[in-house]
């Protein structure tokens, strides 16, 4: 059974106004003091002071992952409250914000080099790590999961608002994130040697600061023996995070089996993958997506059904099939995180109510 773990970026907000609060340093300092020398398990700073990152340990059981995600979110909420803030699993802030960059030499270099791209980059994603046996297997997986990543983005879409207004998208985070020079879809690499050569060539352009800025939709992890799938918004509800993780593991296992069987990657161009990702960001699960087998528009439930069919055997073998089907039924019925945010706004109370609802659902 492949291990799986997740990293989630959470927004720090004022409990009264819902506005983002730049208190990550205070939160981490208090957590470190309370933990007698550590920053608490899986609690880290991010690019902006208005956000925190939580991380689970690797596990093989989705029930254990669900418990860890909820535990980490609750821990982050407790530490945030000690600094007079709350945490919200929102991929962008619904309310206007002018973010404050986190302290550190690397962050200062990012700000100096990338200007407004860095200054405005207050976005929260979800990264899923799935264990692989080697870099060779990992790159074979990356080559074969490319057509399906846009569907994961659509399922996770949780960022309809930007700077106080409706963006017209379900995942505006993904468009803001796409401003980085290395972000997005990539070509088929064919081998681990070619993958590493491509990364080195990108670094030699002096456009990226380091390997930490290899922002592919999915990549080999720098620190762990995993494939890191980075395409998703942070999910409003912990159960949706577990759903994304289960599907991600299913994709990795299905791709690895196809590689071992000698099946070649689908010949999808980067241009088509970018179109599919844009459509996923626009539609979420509320409208049409680009079908990754036919490359034609299809209703979101049809495309999601094709994804489940694609990974069916891997989900079944892992014991995740029933969980995925039940979770998808719930997610599709409420329109995902973006649908929930817009529904909350429609009920009244403005964007402040959207943030308050997100605070509640983050730890519920």
UniProtKB/TrEMBL annotation:
Catalytic activity: L-cysteine + L-glutamate + ATP = gamma-L-glutamyl-L-cysteine + ADP + phosphate + H(+)
EC number, as in UniProt: 6.3.2.2
GO BP terms: modified amino acid biosynthetic process
Broad class of enzyme this protein falls into: ligase
GO molecular function: ATP binding; glutamate-cysteine ligase activity
InterPro entries, per the entry: GCL_type2/YbdK_subfam, GCS2, Gln_synth/guanido_kin_cat_dom, YbdK
TM annotation in the entry: none
Keywords: ATP-binding, Ligase, Nucleotide-binding
Presence of keyword Signal: no
Function: ATP-dependent carboxylate-amine ligase which exhibits weak glutamate--cysteine ligase activity.
Record-linked PANTHER family: GLUTAMATE--CYSTEINE LIGASE 2-RELATED
Name listed for the protein in its UniProt record: Putative glutamate--cysteine ligase 2
């Amino acid at each position: 059974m492949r291990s799986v773990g997740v990293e989630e970026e959470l927004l720090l907000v004022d409990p009264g106004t819902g506005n983002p609060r730049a208190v990550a340093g205070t939160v981490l300092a208090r957590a470190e003091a309370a933990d007698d020398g550590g920053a608490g398990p899986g609690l880290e700073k991010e690019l902006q002071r208005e956000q925190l990152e939580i991380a689970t340990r690797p596990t093989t059981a989705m029930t254990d992952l669900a418990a860890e995600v909820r535990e980490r979110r609750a821990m982050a909420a407790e530490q945030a409250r000690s600094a007079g803030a709350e945490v919200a699993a929102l991929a962008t802030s619904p309310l206007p914000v002018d973010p404050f960059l986190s302290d550190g030499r690397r962050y200062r270099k990012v700000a100096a080099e990338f200007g407004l791209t860095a200054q405005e980059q207050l976005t929260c994603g979800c990264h899923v790590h799935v264990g692989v046996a080697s870099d060779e297997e990992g790159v074979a997986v990356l080559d074969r999961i490319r057509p399906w990543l846009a569907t994961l983005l659509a399922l996770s879409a949780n960022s309809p608002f930007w700077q106080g207004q409706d963006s017209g998208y379900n995942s505006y985070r993904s468009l803001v994130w796409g401003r980085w020079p290395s972000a997005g879809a990539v070509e088929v690499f064919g081998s681990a040697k070619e993958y590493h050569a491509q990364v080195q060539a990108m670094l030699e352009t002096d456009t990226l600061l380091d390997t930490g800025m290899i922002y592919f939709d999915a990549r080999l992890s720098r620190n762990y023996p995993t494939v890191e799938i980075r395409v998703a918004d942070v999910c409003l509800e912990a159960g949706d995070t577990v759903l994304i993780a289960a599907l991600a593991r299913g994709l990795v296992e299905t791709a690895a089996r196809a590689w071992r069987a000698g099946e070649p990657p689908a010949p999808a161009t980067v241009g088509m993958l970018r179109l599919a990702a844009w459509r996923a960001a626009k539609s979420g699960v509320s409208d049409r997506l680009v079908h990754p087998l036919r490359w034609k528009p299809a209703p979101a439930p049809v495309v999601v059904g094709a994804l489940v069919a694609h990974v069916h055997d891997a989900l079944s073998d892992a014991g995740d099939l029933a969980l995925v089907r039940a979770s998808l039924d719930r997610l599709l019925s409420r329109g995902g995180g973006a649908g929930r945010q817009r529904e909350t706004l429609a009920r009244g109370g403005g964007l402040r109510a959207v943030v308050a609802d997100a605070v509640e659902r983050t730890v519920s």
